[in-house]
Every structure is written in structure tokens, then in C-alpha cells.
Specification:
- The protein has 150 residues and is mainly alpha-helical.
- It folds into two domains: 105 residues, no CATH class; 44 residues, no CATH class.
- Helices cover 79% and strands 0% of the residues.
- Helix 2 packs parallel to helix 4 and helix 3 runs antiparallel to helix 4.
- It starts with a helix and ends in an 8-residue tail after the last helix.
């Protein structure tokens, strides 16, 4: 949001779109949970949602971080952020609700599920730590500042 604010986007509009995205997500989660629970796809109940959602998830993330700021007015830049931020959270919901429901379906044994979640959360936290440390590591190794590319 700091980048958008620096290019002239309205903080008020961006805050509105953040709140709107969260409100839509709250409404969409139970609907999507029901849809994935009752789906009868050839590939299973959960995988089609995750596969479809991940494509849009990545596209909307790229669009959030790559606005055409030279051709947009400050208000249009705010709207660009808002539209893709809302769409990003919708795609996040489409991917992650079925993904979270997939775990209990993989095994009926509680010990196996416990091991599965330990591995899942371990990799999740390692990924967060890597993402947080990556800019510092890249700077130390290659003397490159990531922010220079944005």
C-alpha cells in the first residue's frame, strides 16, 4: 500500500477496498465450502477448485504489484488496486477453503492427520521465514536491493 500511496492513490479508497475484500471473503467462505463439499468432479471434490483458483490467484497477485501507473490517474490507480485486491482475495478463498478441507479426507487415522498437519505447518512457517529473509540474503550475496526493481 505504501507504493500505491507514493504514486498518488487515495488511502481512503484503498482502505475501503481492503474492507470490501474481507467482507466478500467472509460471505464467500461458507458458500465455497458448501460448493466444494457437494461437488462431483471427475478429479475429485477439491482439486478443481484449487487448480482453477491458483491460476487466477497468481494473475491477480501480479496485477496488484504491476499497475500501469504512468497511464492511470490517482483515482484510477486506487480503483486498479481495489479491483485486483478484491479479486485476489476471492481467488485466495477459492484455493484455500478446499485445500484446508482436503487434509481430513486424506486419512481416517487421527495420528496420520496429526503428522500431516505437522509437516504442512512446518513447511508453511519455513516458507514464511524464507520469504522474510530472502531480500536480506539476496542483498548480501549479490549486492542487489529488491526494492530497486519495483
Amino acid at each position: 500500500m505504501i507504493y500505491y500511496e507514493n504514486v498518488g492513490a487515495s488511502l481512503l479508497l484503498m482502505s475501503f477496498f481492503v474492507a470490501l475484500a474481507r467482507a466478500i471473503e467472509i460471505i464467500l467462505k461458507p458458500i465455497l465450502a458448501h460448493l466444494s463439499d457437494t461437488a462431483t468432479f471427475k478429479w475429485g471434490r477439491r482439486k478443481p477448485f484449487m487448480l482453477m483458483g491458483c491460476v487466477f490467484y497468481s494473475v491477480f497477485l501480479i496485477c496488484i504489484f504491476a499497475p500501469p501507473t504512468k497511464t492511470l490517474t490517482p483515482i484510477n490507480t486506487s480503483i486498479w488496486f481495489g479491483c485486483f485486491y478484491v479479486l485476489f482475495f476471492i481467488a485466495d478463498t477459492v484455493c484455500n477453503i478446499p485445500y484446508a478441507a482436503l487434509g481430513p479426507e486424506l486419512s481416517s487415522d487421527s495420528k496420520e492427520r496429526e503428522k500431516l498437519y505437522i509437516v504442512f505447518y512446518s513447511f508453511q512457517y519455513l516458507g514464511v521465514l524464507f520469504a522474510a529473509a530472502a531480500p536480506v540474503i539476496l542483498h548480501k550475496l549479490f549486492n542487489v536491493r529488491i526494492i530497486d526493481y519495483f
